[in-house]
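Internal tracking record. Fields below are filled automatically when a chain is submitted to the structure queue. Please do not edit lines marked as system-generated. If the sequence contains nonstandard residues, flag them in the REMARKS field before resubmitting.
Queue: standard
Priority: normal
Entity type: single polypeptide chain
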Amino acid sequence: MEKKGFLEQIPAAAISGACHDGIAVIINVTGNNTLFHTLEELHPQSKYKIYYVEPGIDQLCDTLCLCHEMNLKSIVLHGNKIPDIKNLDLRDSAVLISAGSGNAQDNILTSLLDYDRLSDFSHIAYQTYRYDPELLKRSRERSFDDLRLGLVREDITLAEPPIRNAESVFIDLNSVRYSDFPDSILKSPNGLYAEELCQLSRYIGMSLNLKNVFIYGYPSDSQSNSVTNQLLSESIWHFADGLSSNVSEDPANSGTEDSFLRKIVSMGREGQDLVFVTSRSSGRWWIEIPRIKNNDNLYVACSYSDYATACSGDIPLRWLYFYQKVNHN
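SYSTEM-GENERATED OUTPUT FOLLOWS
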């Protein structure tokens, strides 16, 4: 049986006119097109179209703007170059998947922490011994979220809520352990398994707010038969699979109440009842955050473990963080 093409290479300037039937655009600024051929070998399990462009690095911002105008998710391949945060139009929320704080040449974490327009940030799969304590302190002082590798290994579903909230996701392939990613600069025996990276990529595809994914930390001259290209291709496949099967859900929409179950947890006589909402179809969870000044509620993505924490009598940290954030004087 002939495989239907799900991947189509087009000029970057053609995005606005040619991509009405697509779900995402791969923007490769590495100058190496071998990944395209590696991706072509994979079989989609549902009908979708992904476009592939190779603009110059100086055309990246314009290409991203075209993708946003067409409401297309973008996957930017940077190779061994670190994304330049100050030249990206980031809004509100971001996730970083990396092993730690990096070094003087890898200052993406510092750039994200210095970015004033970032109000919600999560660092996923970091290893404490690779994290500068001062930067970790700065992140926590801003009440940003962090999820170390051990917690991801214990329960990877904990990474889904912050990813679901994010508009931009940054993935450092050096967060993958050396045995699964031999081109790693860190060459660390510890890190994400390849399968975990693919699961996180599927969560990214199923994000409700996502606009951009930036992947970096790998050799720009990788060959089509290399482990790096295979890992990249398979993680992109999982992203696309999550995106193609995603369902738009909004518990704040009164017209969709029948699609959700509400679970109210009493926090005791002096405590405030916490309201959780779970989707009947996807199983995703949200927690209700009262906005006192607006006299309404904000629904924030959470996990079943947040619900279990409330049921045990403790207020989830996610509720406390967002409650303080939205009711700040």
